[in-house]
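Hi support team,

I've been running sequence recovery on a batch of backbones for a student project. Most finish fine, but this one hangs at about 90% for roughly twenty minutes before it completes. I'm not sure whether the input is malformed or the queue is just slow. I've pasted the structure tokens below so you can try to reproduce it. Let me know if you need the job ID as well.

Thanks,
M.K.
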């Protein structure tokens, strides 16, 4: 039975960078799911415009925000040195397309204050956060304005911290999820750790196992994220205690998805055979199809969004050139199950 907060078992993940458009969340709504718009990388005005478009279309939706990391505004001197070294290494990639690598940008907070102010003044039904927690004062302010607040967590420790700030529900993200990891608590680096893990901490093997751990620690409604691609996966996380599942990769190839066609085609291409958590594109671990850029830059600095700005011209040029080898091809571990067709067809397959 769907939880009252969500009204559905299917939530479409907020996929920043153009995938989660108002038309996409409208299609999800019409098919019986719940879509989230993504405020990440957008101006306050662009976020407001998307809210207006989704409302005008009659869609039920939520809005997701990236929480800026104070430690990166600005980063330490050591990290700046790593960024300059990485900037130098990227010049070889830039030569392929005749573009320039920009100077370091170290002050990007993704328009955080303005976005919070806008959502307090003109609230939406649900607001979710990734990359950190907004603070108890922001949580209470959004709730007073009428919004339900969700935090994205990746461990029991993060879940406990989020619950302590008074959020209404948690999105529990397993490392199998495509795109950026929402992790925000420090984890100790261990020499020789597998590159896919990013550190030496033991991980629950499945999304359902992580969900069960979080469920035992907090009493909040939970949404499962990571690796859910079919009815069996959905049933598994619901049985583990989730009230709904949040899916991203499963929707990437749909007709209504705003993802680039190059990205959609790559998900079905036999040239890509694995995914990996990589910092190469943005400076934050994100699961992507392994292409030449991922292989060439296994040790990018941990500095988001500074690395994102350094690689932006490369990614734009690769997309314009139709070159998937230097594009950020976000994908979860179940990417090979992603199908073409309409959002409605995908949701029907999940629920039918």
């Amino acid at each position: 039975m769907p939880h009252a907060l969500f009204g559905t078992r299917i939530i479409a993940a907020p996929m920043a960078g153009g995938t989660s458009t108002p038309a996409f969340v409208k299609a999800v709504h019409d098919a019986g799911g719940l879509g989230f718009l993504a405020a990440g990388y957008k101006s306050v005005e662009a976020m407001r415009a998307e809210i207006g478009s989704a409302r005008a279309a009659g869609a039920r939706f939520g809005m997701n925000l990236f929480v800026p990391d104070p430690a990166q505004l600005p980063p330490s001197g050591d990290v700046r040195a790593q960024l300059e070294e990485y900037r130098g290494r990227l010049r070889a990639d830039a030569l392929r397309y005749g573009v320039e690598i920009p100077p370091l940008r170290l002050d990007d907070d993704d328009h955080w204050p303005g976005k919070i102010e806008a959502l307090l003044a003109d609230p939406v039904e649900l607001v979710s956060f990734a990359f950190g927690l907004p603070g108890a004062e922001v949580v209470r302010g959004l709730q007073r304005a009428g919004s339900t607040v969700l935090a994205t967590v990746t461990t029991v420790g993060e879940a406990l911290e989020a619950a302590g700030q008074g959020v209404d529900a948690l999105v529990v993200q397993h490392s199998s999820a495509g795109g950026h990891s929402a992790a925000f608590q420090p984890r100790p680096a261990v020499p020789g750790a597998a590159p896919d893990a990013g550190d030496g901490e033991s991980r629950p093997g499945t999304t359902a196992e992580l969900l069960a751990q979080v469920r035992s620690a907090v009493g909040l409604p939970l949404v499962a994220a990571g690796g859910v691609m079919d009815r069996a996966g959905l049933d598994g996380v619901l049985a583990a205690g989730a009230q709904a599942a949040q899916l991203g990769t499963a929707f990437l190839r749909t007709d209504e998805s705003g993802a680039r066609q190059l990205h959609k085609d790559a998900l079905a291409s036999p040239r890509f055979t694995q995914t990996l958590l990589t910092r190469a594109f943005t400076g934050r671990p994100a699961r992507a199809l392994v292409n030449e850029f991922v292989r060439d830059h296994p040790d990018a600095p941990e500095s988001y969004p500074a690395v994102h700005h350094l690689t932006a011209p490369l990614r734009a040029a690769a997309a314009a050139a139709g070159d998937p080898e230097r594009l950020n091809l976000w994908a979860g571990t179940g990417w090979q199950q992603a199908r073409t067709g309409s959002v409605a067809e995908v949701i029907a397959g999940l629920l039918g």
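--
Follow-up from support: It reproduced on our side and the slowdown came from queue contention, not your input. Residues 104 and 306 are 7 Å apart (CA to CA). No action needed from you.
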